[in-house]
Amino acid sequence: MRVIGIESSCDETAVAVFDAERGLLSHRLHSQVAMHQAYGGVVPELASRDHVRRLLPLVREALAQAGSDRQSIDAVAYTAGPGLIGALLVGAGFAASLAYAWGKPAIGIHHLEGHLLAPLLEREPPEFPFLALLVSGGHTQLVDVQGLGGYRILGETLDDAAGEAFDKTAKLLGLPYPGGAALSHLAEAGRSDRFVFPRPMLDRPGLDFSFSGLKTAALVALRGRILDDAIRADVARGFQEAVIQTLAEKCRRALEATGHRRLVIAGGVGANRRLRERLAEVAREAGAHLYFPRTEFCTDNGAMIALAGCMRLAAGMHPGRPIGARANWDLGDSCATGV
Ligand code: KG4
Ligand code: ZN
């Protein structure tokens, strides 16, 4: 069983081929980051137009790299939501056309299901069930993963996502968009005792998050000061510590509440080295094991969509999903109802 996966929900165009027996055969990606940087964020119309330009060449490259042809592909999986609606529609329309021309099914995948399953691309994948911390530019959720399509949201952000908070604070520090990775790099040179920012929501029970106040705290810390390298690094360090400690404490509580012995980090912020180190400690203290995808599969990619499509095809969990796209789509609805 072999599936081609197409990701176009935001500013990455990505295509990959996954084979049920041989694993990942190829993955190709074009990032639009340089194009959007001048605007300080993703411009939806530009994103859609660029996906149109990139998809077909990437499909050709991914097939060639996989040593595969259209006859050997059993299904076309694509990200059906959530995301930018124009960008999603380009991917959905393209996938539907390809599937029709090749006489294969098209399978709409929830973008966050892709992220959740990405650690299964690694050599030592987690078994079900597991607890997942999903931390991306658009989402911050703790998810109880019982199996393919069995997702229960235990907690989520009430305002900004963790990646969004990283990006907004990075902007305050004068870093180009998206600044999450650059902020974490800057933080490495900073002192941890100069700025101690609040740990949002830790004083309350439950597993929800809130990150919008942290960006304001960083703004207040910077106000009236000359932005030299030392202060930028110290603010970055203080901010990063506050986010990571909050995420770590909520993971600790969630492991305790659910009794899970496997903790998975997924999504772009999962690329953060300090977060991985801290969560490894949390997992160890709880007698659990930590899993994460390699860095390139933390951020948006086609491999996770091809894998999710292959798993759904193998489990017979795709029929009846109409072809389409949804800008807003709860992960909890993604099993039975489809798009
Ligand atoms: O999963 P993703 O590629 O896209 C979404 O689905 O949102 O996540 C992108 C987010 C951005 O906010 C980016 O700044 C953040 O992940 N990010 C990081 C790091 N690398 C990427 N945040 C903190 N530390 C990093 N090393
Ligand atoms: Zn994503």
What does this structure look like?
The protein has 339 residues and is an alpha/beta fold. It folds into two domains: 154 residues, ATPase, nucleotide binding domain (Nucleotidyltransferase, domain 5), CATH 3.30.420; 165 residues, Nucleotidyltransferase, domain 5. It contains eleven helices and ten strands. The strands form two sheets. The protein has a five-stranded mixed β-sheet, with helices on both faces. Helix 2 runs parallel beside helix 3, helix 4 crosses helix 11 and helix 8 packs parallel to helix 9. The chain is globular. 5'-O-[(R)-(carboxyoxy)(hydroxy)phosphoryl]adenosine (KG4) binds next to helix 5 and helix 6.
**Strands of the biggest beta sheet: in what spatial order?**
3-2-1-4-5
| Ligand set | 5'-O-[(R)-(carboxyoxy)(hydroxy)phosphoryl]adenosine, zinc ion
Q: What structural category do the secondary elements indicate? A: alpha/beta
How many beta-strand segments? 10
Count of helix runs:
11
The CATH superfamily of the largest domain bears the name ATPase, nucleotide binding domain
Order of helices and strands: EEEHHEHEHEEEHHHHEHEHH
User: Between the first and last Cα atoms, what is the distance in angstroms?
Assistant: 23 Å
Strand content: 15-25%
* Overall number of domains: 2
